[in-house]
Amino acid sequence: MEYWAEIVGQTDAVRTLDRAAETGVVAAHAWLITGPPGSGRSNLAFRFAAALIARTAETRESVFEQVRARTHPDLGVLTTQKLLIDIRAARDIVTTAHYAPAEGRYRVIVIEDADRMPERTSNVLLKALEEPPERTIWILCAPSEADLLPTIRSRARSLRLVTPSPADIAKLLHERDGIDAAAAERAARLAQSHIGMARRLASDEGAMQRRDRSVELALGIATLGDAMRAAAALVKVAEADAAALTEARDLREREDAMRSLGLAPGAAIPPQMRSQMRALEEDQKRRATRSLRDGIDRILTDLLSVYRDILLHALVASDGDDGGIDLINREERARIADRAERWGPIRALAAVSAVETARTRLTRGITPALVLEALFAGIIAAEEPV
């Protein structure tokens, strides 16, 4: 099972997929891999894809290197940097699915973020799942089965992932990436078992500093003025985080596009070629919008961990024992204890609920600054004496 060693905490799922890939005759032509963010859905999907494509167990790793780079001729990937998967992209991938495999046993189509398919796009996919090509396997990834249409769910074999433990993630970071054990433990704990975020916090000092800044701002709010300033500051934190993720990629894409047009990077763009570059710029703007909203959602997840710690501390302290509380944000134990004493369980629970409301508002397209302002203003209002 060494091939699956990087898949953390998913023993049952790995056993199921390994058995399916080894037989050479896959019982299901479509698989739905569900699990919470950071559970490793995409990593597992691409590992499974490579195992299906490879003709022998010995060639799995070499095939996976191509799959990971998205360069294998028998792999199709449908993903998006936008808020929703475009129907035209879905039609294109359905066409790809009907090609016979060029090198491997199967042609495999992976749909990341299948929950981002609106109903019209899902219906395009449904037709392909109803009459699947003989040598094509579909792998869909989503947070939960409820995120997909019932007609899609009924045509796929479901595989539910569990949330990996922070200890398992810390072990992976330490043994595979060579990260100091203490740093790996802290990153895994603060990432709340999100594998990708744990790796980033452990290896990117800037990411950890931005996370610490978010928590500091949240715990420093005492007045409505503080709330408005914190909201503005957190938007800037999210913008910096999004820029760190996208700037290098945007520049590389622009340079590659110019080379494909026969232009040197930085050269003037002839009028007849500007439409191609404008299309790239529009795609990058849409990706930047999604990256910013994803960054705000990560901040809200971090804030949720703070308010969850306050609630836990308030509940335990109300029973007369505040020792040995397993906090996510242990580094802020003193400030969390102080806030828990002032708030009590009811206000702490209200803050937790307010974050969930804020996350819902974010998905509805409300401006991030307004989402954060409403969140903090509501928490301040709840803290005021009646």
From TrEMBL:
InterPro entries: DNA_Rep/Repair_Clamp_Loader, P-loop_NTPase. GO terms for biological process: DNA-templated DNA replication. It comes from the Bacteria. Pfam families: DNA_pol3_delta2. This is DNA polymerase III delta prime subunit. It comes from Leucobacter luti.
